[in-house]
């Protein structure tokens, strides 16, 4: 059931449905895909890189990267010659000015659905900074935890880490919370004292650790250590100056 949310300043809804519902009536949208699109965007733009979101992971992305003279990030398991991927660790030393296409069926896809509404990439690392910048756009703020689209039927699997990140950002915002936003804040308050401990035991974290990417979970778990706020403008995420 979809109800009128106009009475709330701060709202939180999942995935593409949340973007479709809230972007047109919000002053700014914050996209969260903690493991790991939005964490990758924070790490890369914090180094001065320019990130081009791309919604597909098929051969069309190769042509797109060539057309804009950008490097192409790969899946974690399929390293390119550059070594950049949806692994935050792979981006820790990306040089300033690097133009990088970052394909993602979750974070990239949602970013490209927000239309003309200002859009930020949020994660646990930059939660307070993102909240501060989001508030500068206006009172109506939509926080969108991405979740994960399952390959079998394209259904949405809510992700604990995205809800946690949403709650972290919302906890720094001023305004009236929707019930969903209240749940996100309560989740963050309940689990924030041992974020890495909880994320490494959740399904997404366990899956990455099993594949050898525990460092990515650790990087994504770092709480409020960054002032970098990636802003989506002209088809790219760049660090807000």
Q: Roughly how much helix do the residues carry, as a percent range?
A: 25-40%
- The count of helical stretches stands at 10
**CATH topology type:** putative 2-phosphosulfolactate phosphatase
Strand content: 15-25%
What is the gyration radius calculated from CA atoms? Answer: 16 Å
Runs with pLDDT <50, length 5+? none
Report the biggest beta sheet as strand number plus sense, adding barrel if it closes.
6 strands, mixed
Number of domain units: 1
Examine the secondary-structure arrangement and name the CATH architecture.
Alpha-Beta Complex
Give the spatial strand order of the biggest sheet: 1-7-2-6-10-11
Structural category: alpha/beta
Note the run of SSEs as H and E. EHEHEHEEHEHEEEHHHHHEE
Shape: globular
């Amino acid at each position: 059931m979809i109800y009128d949310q106009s009475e709330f300043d701060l709202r939180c809804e999942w995935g593409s449905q949340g973007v479709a519902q809230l972007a047109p009536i919000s002053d700014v949208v914050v996209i969260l895909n903690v493991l790991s699109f939005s964490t990758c965007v924070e790490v890369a733009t914090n180094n001065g890189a320019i990130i081009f979101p791309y919604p597909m992971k098929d051969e069309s992305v190769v042509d797109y990267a060539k057309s804009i003279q950008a490097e192409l990030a790969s899946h974690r398991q399929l390293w390119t010659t550059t070594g950049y991927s949806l692994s935050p660790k792979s981006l820790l030393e990306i040089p300033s000015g690097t133009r990088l296409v970052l394909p993602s069926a979750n974070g990239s896809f949602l970013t490209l659905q927000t239309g003309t509404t200002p859009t930020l990439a949020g994660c646990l690392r930059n939660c307070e900074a993102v909240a501060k910048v989001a508030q500068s756009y206006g009172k109506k703020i939509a926080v969108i935890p991405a979740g994960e689209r399952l390959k079998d039927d394209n259904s949405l699997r809510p992700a604990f880490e995205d809800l946690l990140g949403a709650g972290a950002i919302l906890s720094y915002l001023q305004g009236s919370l929707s019930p969903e936003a209240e749940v996100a804040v309560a989740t963050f308050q309940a689990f924030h004292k041992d974020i890495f401990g909880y994320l490494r035991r959740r399904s997404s974290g366990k899956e990455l650790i099993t594949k050898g990417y525990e460092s990515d979970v650790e990087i994504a778990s770092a709480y409020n250590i960054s002032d970098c706020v990636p802003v989506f403008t002209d088809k790219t995420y760049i660090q807000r100056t």
